[in-house]
Amino acid sequence: MSAHLSYEESKKLVFKGLILLGVITLIEVFIALIGNGHIISGFRLPKYIMYPMMIGFSMYKAYFIVYEFMHMRYEVKSLAMAVLLPMTLLIWAMIAFFSEGNKWFDYKNYVRTKNKVEVKTSIQPQGAVKPSTTYEIQDVH
Amino acid sequence: MTTDTIKHEVHSDHHPADGQNLWGGGKEPFKASYGKLMMWYFLISDAFTFSGFLISYGALRFSMPTWPLPDHVFESIPFYTGKAPLIFVTFMTFVLIISSVTMVRAVQEGHRENRKGVVFWMILTILGGLTFLGCQAWEWTTLIKKENVTLTRNPFSRHMENGVYLAADGSVAMKDGNEETIKAGDSYLIHKHDEAWDLRKYRVTEGQDAGVVKQLSFGPKAFGALFFFITGFHGFHVFSGVVFLAIIAINAASGVYTARKNGYEMIEKIGLYWHFVDLVWVFVFLVFYLL
What is the model's pLDDT at position B71? Predict the structure, then answer.
């Protein structure tokens, strides 16, 4: 770093980074609060707007920490690639495990709906109290 | 550091086309010292560990019909009994960012061989780490003692259907003159009164179960285990970071790194680790508190 920037310049960059990360965090929290109706009552943001924004801001924070604070920008390219390229494996891990999670949901839901059908055919007094550990789902999709 | 860089530059000037010879030995292909390179490799493996945890959190969350809403779970702050969603964790995030910045300053002072500067900024970093740990201890205590979350029990959840709460005699419960209605998606916390769970009854008013009387059920069990394991694993990283920072600060103060004449490289290495801890928190913050 010292080879690329003067001491005064790099000092400035650090405090710029502090402001940047702080402001981004505040924006993220603001999105979470306004999106869930905490700031303006009755006003909510849909998840497909909130989530990509939060993920985008977090990715930018991660980029900034790695490239500026951890000096990845000033390392040779082969080192940066040796560290960053393996991380792309995680893209597949996310696709695989998240769709797996969705499948678990579908299967459990299938079993639950089937179980419910049986309960309704047997003699079951209205207003029965179900065990507290059962999850009840009415509207799946 | 300055002398190192100059040496490298001269080196490559003399061999402008030794790209194929770069890995033949005797050179540093990554132009980074062994210690720094190994710190990077350690961080890669650690990143995969954390990713494994966070991805399994996602998979389990996707497999559940409902999940506690973070800004309902994390709405307590010290010295205030009202609701302050996400304020405390935002403060924790700031603490970690600030300690990251003081760490960068320590590394910069190291490049200038400024022993006093290094020690000063490292002490501030250690204080930041300790503050973070203290905050986390408070957060955990609140969850465990006040809200009764454990590894296998999670009283936080969200309603999945519309309805009304029922009073003990079976009539509709009233609060401030209004019926206590339930909307799908609303958060609730099951309280404990005199060692007994207050599993309130409610009557569903819409959907295929309309008219059925049900009881509040506990939220997804996995939430507690995931929260304590992942934030605990991160907190343990912060803790071990603080220990290493302390050791290295003492060494720096005693002049060990001045004698090594390598631009306080040890500060850079612990700096990489400390920034990584901050980096992981960015993602822990994202998945546990924002999404």
Answer: 84
Same-domain pairing of A42 and A108 = no
Q: Quick one: closest CA in B to A77, which residue?
A: B30
Q: What is the 3-state secondary structure (H, E, C) of B94-105?
A: HHHHHHHHHHHH
Q: Is residue A129 part of a domain?
A: no
Angstrom distance (rounded) from CA B231 to CA B281: 9
Mean pLDDT calculated for residue range A39-54:
87
In angstroms, the Cα distances linking A73 to A1, A81, B121, B263 are 9, 11, 23, 19
A31: chain B residues, CB-CB within 8 Å: 290
Q: Which of B174, B158, B162 is nearest to B205 (CA)?
A: B162
- pLDDT at residue B16 above 80? no
Is residue B250 less than 8 Å (CB to CB) from chain A?
A: no
**Do both A61 and A105 map to the same domain?**
no
What single DSSP character describes residue B108?
A: H
Specify the DSSP class assigned to residue B285: I
Q: What is the pTM of this model?
A: 0.85
* Residue B196 DSSP SS3: strand
**Shared domain check, A80 and A69:** no
Does one domain contain both A4 and A59?
A: yes
> CA angle B131-B228-B183, nearest 5°?
105
Q: pLDDT for B145-180, tens place per residue? A: 989 999 999 999 999 889 889 888 878 888 887 888
Residue A103 lies in a domain: yes
B71 in contact with A, Cβ within 8 Å: yes
Count of the separate structural domains present in chain A: 2
Q: Among positive and negative, which fits the CA dihedral B210, B212, B216, B220?
A: negative
Residues A19 and A44 in one domain: yes
Residue among A66, A76, A127 minimizing CB distance to B213: A127
CA distance A64 to chain B (A): 10
Does the pLDDT of residue B104 top 80, yes or no?
yes
Percent of chain B's residues with pLDDT above 90: 53
